[in-house]
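User: Hey, quick favor. My workstation is busy. Could you predict this chain's structure for me?
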Amino acid sequence: MHVLIIFGTVEGHTRKIARTLSSTVQSLGHQATVFDAGDLGDVDLDIADAVIVCAPVHMGAYPTAISHWLKIKAERLAGLPGAFVSVSLAAASPFPEEHAEIQKITAALFEQTGWKPLMVHQAAGALKYPQYDFLKRLLMKHIAYREGGPTDVTTDHEFTNWNALAAFAEGFVETCGTTTATTAA
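Assistant: No problem, here it is.
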């Protein structure tokens, strides 16, 4: 099976997640090709047996490149097994209302684009303090403090559960194999 992994990123953490998904898919004996949504052009979806899309939430929305690509490819994507990995700090939050909010943002993306993936994973992102400008660093530190998170601004802080991400990828590949076997029969 050949899995296309499309990602959008703001600070680079979603790229790391996409590459990790690629490694997991390849470790299962399948091919994976990773594309940055900002550099896509017209990707040939005919080479894909399945698609995983990864996108971060920043300021309550996914990157425009992702939503635009999903919207123009929704009809073609409907014929492929798909998975979506939403990356956000809200996924690491101890507050249920933040989890509910990220679910709403994800549902709004699917409504806006018309894409309905088979599986969705909410992955916790990272605080990239050293990359932030002064105001963003101050704001993110305040939010982290309020939620009991790390406030050391001299280093990055990753919250991604890499084992859960790998299990999600494995489950998706298994589901695709089952879907393909059922369709062939």
